[in-house]
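Summary: Need help interpreting a holo structure output

Steps to reproduce:
1. Submit the protein chain below together with the SMILES for zinc ion.
2. Request a joint structure prediction with the ligand placed.
3. Inspect the structure token block that comes back.

Expected: a single structure record containing both the chain and the bound molecule.
Actual: see attached output.

Input attached:
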Amino acid sequence: MKLTPLGPWIARKLDIEKQNSRRLTRELIEAYQLDKLNQTLELASTRSIFYKHLLAGCNLKLKNLKQLECLPFTTAEDIRINPLQLLTVSQGEIDRIVTLQSSGTTGQPKRIYFTAADQELTIEFFQQGMATLVEPGARVLILLPGKNPGSVGDLLKQALTRHGVESIVYGPVFDPAETLAVIQKEKIDCLVGIPVQVLSLAKYRDANGLPVSVGVKNVLLSTDYVPEAIVQALQEAWDCRVFNHYGSTEMGLGGGVECEFLHGYHLREADLYFEVVDPVSGEVLPDGEYGEVVFTTLTRQGMPLIRYKTGDFSRFLKEPCPCGTVLKRMDKVRGRLKGTVQLRNGQCINISELDEIILGLKGVVDFSAELHEGKEQLLKITAFEAEGNQISIEPEAVVHALAALEPLNKAVKQKNLKVQVQVKNEEQKRRITSSKRVIVIIPESGEL
Ligand SMILES: [Zn+2]
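--- attached output ---
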């Protein structure tokens, strides 16, 4: 097994030789991150109108990484409302704008801006990330959009060329038979794509009901939540290795990638500083605890982001990776966080509605809500009892109270939704700030 190539790459970026050490250590990474954080704070607070206001009055000369916890978050809504105010360069210096259509409350799309230097950083990361799974001489089919210069497929192709690997930007799969024919004809041995699209290739059967034989040895899945069932289905179909990549446009397309041990993403720590926070209180959680992933860009020039809330639900893995790297490892993203979720009957429930009902119950000080997708939806509520509560709360009482929520009640009656409540008598761990509450959506992973 080889070390993740991200380690030596980050060591080079840290210029470790100059620091009288040849070995990458946590101390060196964190000293570098602190330095870059301070540079980013300086850049953002002086050049971006948005951050000038947001960070006014804050301590922007951090003495340690922990002091970052005092700074406010940036949200998707902030980017949606006025993306140009986040820029730290003139619009003329912007090389690429990515527009993301997503369901924000304002209905506006989200725009992310990159300079040429920002894009160069992405290419570098792609090159190192792909070096984890392919050697020079490999042939890669990129099943991601790549027509436009600077698009994800285009940057990936540039990165692979630097690594001595031939690639074809094919784009998304519309006709599995046609894509499989290209894989055979071009002797492709590695695929990069969106999980369900790659799965459609593995599950395709020809006119005789047989799978199409391909020589795919490695697959990198990206841009979406990756159910374990898809990973297994691909391994079985092609006897290949399946790597997961974690990233979003806001992260500069890449955030982390698994090493050969395939157990959690090694993070792009020279360009991004990650935190996992309590989605309710915003407090930083200890390693090992699940929460919302937050990141700060360390090297972004055009549109730096400070403590950006991703809405992704994951945790840092405490145990060192068997590959031996000192880079931090993040568990696979387990779900997404949302204020409003849609039920199968088409109606929506909002966390603030749950707040009104559950926090209105005597003795309840806090709760968490998870919506599990499956044959039917399952809403799991964990209610926390106040310390020293005299009359214990019955889960049935919570279920009964929730029936007052009409869309939820309807869905239960139509057998589209099950509600499960547990009551925990724990010390209050979280401060309650109702407006920031979220429901965790756990995607279906068992059935395909
Ligand atoms: Zn590893």
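--- end attachment ---

Reviewer comment: Residues 64 and 412 are 50 Å apart (CA to CA). The chain is about 25% helix and 20% strand.
Status: needs-info
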